[in-house]
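Appendix C reproduces, verbatim, an entry submitted by the partner laboratory led by Prof. M.T., so that reviewers can inspect both the input and the predicted structure.
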Amino acid sequence: MSKVQGGMKCVKYLLFVFNFIFWLSGLFVLAVGLWLRLDPQTVELLTGDQAPDTFFIAVYILLGAGGLMMVVGFFGCFGAVRESQCLLASFFACLLIIFGAEVAAGVFGFMNKEQIVEEVQKFYSSSIADISNSNATAIIFVYHKSLNCCGVSTLDDETSLCPGAAETTQDCLTAITEFFNERLHIIGYTGIGIAGVMIIGMIFSMVLCCAIRNNREVI
């Protein structure tokens, strides 16, 4: 097996270091995805027979991408050390797939931000409208407790729903908007940020792959 020399040897070790960082990034993405999926506050708000699940679609994309990043990062390190053209080409292809998934998660989070918020707001408002139903009452209580809010507009209209609430208590529609906007921005920025990092990895892998092929052709 021919070994790369000179500047390409530097690229080889840079790619190895990148893959280690990439593996850590995958761990970070996976941790963020698990936090968003298992966060008790989020789970409580989106629990129910008719609760919207659009928010979790972006979370599942993030989880899948994070897990795949960890696996690909490991094999990318192996491919760089072994100087395997096949492994490096496969690494590039996997990076391209993950790149698409990360961008998709980021774009999905930003483009569907208003839709997701509206779905959750409608879910809460429909529970308010069906206040006589015990399940609806339980859902309302969860939202009031988790978001520290009360009602759909002003406190004066909803005093029976949250007795003892302060006059400065925020209405739940605004609280829902702020809560989910914050989490959707996390998904969006994480996805797009990691996608940017992967462009560097794709460049390194292709440069090293081409160098290995050229070395073999010379020999």
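The radius of gyration is 24 Å. Additional entries are available on request from the coordinating office.
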